[in-house]
Design brief:
CATH superfamily of the domain at 1-78 and 155-162 and 189-236: P-loop containing nucleotide triphosphate hydrolases
Distance between the termini: 35 Å
Number of strands: 10
Order of helices and strands: EEEHEEHEHHHHEHEHEEHH
Shape: globular
CATH class of the domain at 1-78 and 155-162 and 189-236: Alpha Beta
Structural class: alpha/beta
CATH architecture of the domain at 1-78 and 155-162 and 189-236: 3-Layer(aba) Sandwich
Strand content: 25-35%
Radius of gyration: 17 Å
CATH topology of the domain at 1-78 and 155-162 and 189-236: Rossmann fold
Number of helices: 10
Length: about 240
């Protein structure tokens, strides 16, 4: 198993944000993590990334515990988070933002140049915009840049936090295609999304969080057909 979260408890101040959750991500799969605002989705990603420390439980990556490691160490292992809201450097160019994604790598310029080309293969519009300031891009282009920056760190596991947030329906479809392409290239993805239909249509497996607990889990196709999911998240 690539990632195994076991009985994870996270407290933020006096609030128990995660109440003993367990979830798994296998190699080369997409796992959707669904739930309403405040359910604990982003908290889960931050705990995996090392940005929050768990009070109890453990997080294993390829069988090795990582819950005491720093965010830098976790990125070096191959776990990269693309945060909600993109968190780009708006006054820096598209290329400069992409370069920050490779900051911890020691590869040659030739290898990095080849990987910039791979990023532009996923996101052709970024090639055209490469000298523009990131803050001048559209919302969809900024999301592409945020994902591209994450890919420059060479992840084995990509944590995506609300990649469709605030985007027009056509751009949501485009981002969904890109997520699928990235997964087919061998990268496992833990996808946090409020757009349950999009997330489950892409995912192999899904987990539903409710107030810090796993309320439901299963194959993504089964969850998409579930009456509970349809009423709670799809409005049908």
């Amino acid at each position: 198993m690539l990632l195994n979260v076991r009985d994870l408890v996270v407290r933020i101040g006096s609030i128990e944000a995660l109440r003993g959750i367990s979830l798994q991500v296998a190699e080369r799969t997409i796992v959707a993590l669904l739930g309403a605002n405040g359910a604990g989705k982003s908290t889960t990603l931050k705990a995996i990334s090392g940005l929050l420390r768990g009070a109890e439980g453990e997080i294993l990556y390829r069988g090795e515990p990582i819950h005491q490691k720093t965010p830098r160490e976790i990125v070096t292992l191959g776990i990269v988070q693309v945060p909600e809201g993109r968190k780009l450097f708006p006054r820096m160019s598209v290329m400069e933002n992409l370069e920050t994604g490779s900051y911890l790598r020691s590869d040659s310029k030739a290898i990095l140049k080849q990987e910039f080309e791979e990023i532009f293969g996923h996101f052709p519009i970024l090639r055209q915009r490469r000298r523009q300031e990131a803050g001048s891009l559209s919302g969809g282009e900024q999301q592409m840049l945020a994902i591209g920056r994450g890919l420059m760190a060479k992840p084995n596991l990509l944590l995506l936090d609300e990649p469709s947030l605030g985007l027009a329906p056509l751009m949501v479809e485009e981002i969904a295609k890109i997520i699928s392409e990235i997964n087919r290239s061998g990268v496992a993805i833990l996808l946090v999304e409020q757009n349950a239909e999009m997330a489950l249509s892409l995912a192999h497996h899904g987990f539903v969080l409710e107030t810090g607990r796993i309320a439901l889990s299963g194959q993504a196709a089964d969850l998409l057909a579930s009456e509970m999911i349809r009423h709670a998240y799809l409005g049908t």
